Amino acid sequence: MSIELLAAGKLLDMALGGIVGNAATETAKLLWRTIKNRLLQNQPVIEAEIVELEQNPTQEKLKPLEPFLQVEMHKDKLFAQEISNLAKEIAKANSGDTITTGEIKAEGNAVAAAKIDAPNSRIGGSDTNINLPKN
């Protein structure tokens, strides 16, 4: 059985929506709580960063959490699958399209990239639309 996981950075980006008040869906809130609880339980050294993120949720404040989430995902594949599934639910609800992912692995200074194929060459949410050029 192949496990399809999202990268830790992408998961944290999606979880940020669970922190940002009115725009947050229940699934995004659940994703953030699941990640937060795991990190606080197993990586208490970053508690201050989590508190700071919740008080002032920005993309910049997500970065220090990423390596810690990667470690937790590597140690516990069931946890990794659980949060990846939550993120896929969020993505599906936001776009109405199916998102398929493969295992993404980036080490050191490597950058992970993905290609998204949308039927109408457009990805959008309730308040943001991004038009992709047609190939």
Flag low-confidence runs: 111-130
How confident overall, as mean pLDDT? 75
- Per DSSP, the total helix count is 6
Number of strands: 2
Approximate shape = globular
What's the number of structural domains?
Answer: 1
C-alpha Rg (nearest Å): 15 Å
Strand percentage lies at under 5%
Element string (H = helix, E = strand):
HHHHHHEE
Distance between the termini: 33 Å
Q: Which structural class fits the helix and strand makeup?
A: mainly alpha
| Lateral strand order in the biggest sheet | 1-2
Question: Helicity, in percent?
Answer: 40-55%
Most strands sheet = 2 strands, antiparallel
Task: Walk me through the structure.
There is one protein chain. The chain is mainly α. The chain has one domain. The chain contains 6 helices and 2 strands. It has a two-stranded antiparallel ribbon with strand order 1-2. Strand 1 (122-124) and strand 2 (129-131) form a beta hairpin. Helix 1 crosses helix 2 (26-42), helix 2 (26-42) packs antiparallel against helix 6 (77-95) and helix 5 packs across helix 6 (77-95). The longest helix is centred in the middle third of the chain and has 19 residues, at 77-95. It is globular. Mean pLDDT is 75; it is low at 111-130.
